[in-house]
Amino acid sequence: MLRNYFKVAFRNLAKHRTISLINIAGLTIGITAAVFIMLWVQNEFSFDNYHPDVDNIYRVKTKLSLTKDEVWDWESSPYMLGPVAKQEIPGLKNYTFLWPGYMMTVHHNNQLISEKSMHI
User: Fold this and answer.
1) Conformation bin of residue 101: beta by default, left when phi > 0, alpha when psi is -120 to 50
2) What whole-number distance in Å separates Cα of residue 15 and Cα of residue 91?
């Protein structure tokens, strides 16, 4: 019975080659896109989960508003922010500054201006 199903399917694929090719290509692209989206979502949800105190990890960004329409965002902070924040904020237990080789990105009005790896 199963052999008969394969025989009929192969005959239909051979008879309607163009439509079969379009359907198989579409199915392949769809499954590939779904797998890549699943891997991306899994990576986003598992980011920094290897830390034992994952609920207390925060990222500090610098935001500079020059005018009403001009806003600069840096995904970095001043070097002395860690020690000063630990003195000033009572609930802060620890801080980390990613020297050497941290990534610095600069955004201007929600557009990426520069992204470079800093090595000191």
Assistant:
1) left
2) 71
Cα 76 from Cα 104, distance rounded (Å): 6
* Integer Cα distance of 92 and 27 in angstroms: 51
Give the CA-trace dihedral at 24, 27, 30, 31, to 10 degrees: -110
Distances in Å between the alpha carbon of 98 and those of 1, 76, 88, 104, 120? 64, 10, 21, 10, 11
Q: Give pLDDT tens digits for 25-64.
A: 999 999 999 999 999 999 888 877 777 777 777 777 777 7
Beta-bridge mates of residue 24: none
Distance of CA 64 to the CA centre of its chain: 24
pTM higher than 0.70 for the full model? no
Residue with the larger pLDDT of the pair 26 and 118: 26
